[in-house]
Amino acid sequence: MSSSIDTRPVILTGDRTTGPLHLGHYVGSLKSRVALQRSHRQFLLLADTQALTDNAHDPEKVRRNVLEVALDYLAVGIDPVETAICVQSALPALAELTLLYMNFVTVGRLERNPTIKTEIQLRGFERDIPAGFLCYPVAQAADITAFKATVVPVGEDQAPLIEQTNEIVRRLNRQVGRDILVEAEAMVPTVGRLPGVDGKAKMSKSQGNGIPLSASPDHIRDAVRRMYTDPDHIRVSDPGRIEGNVVFTYLDAFCDDRQFVDELKARYRQGGLGDVTLKRHLDGILQALLAPIRERRARFASEPDYVMGILREGTLKARERTEATLAELRAALGLFTLT
Question: What CA–CA distance (Å, rounded) separates 117 from 107?
Answer without folding.
Answer: 12
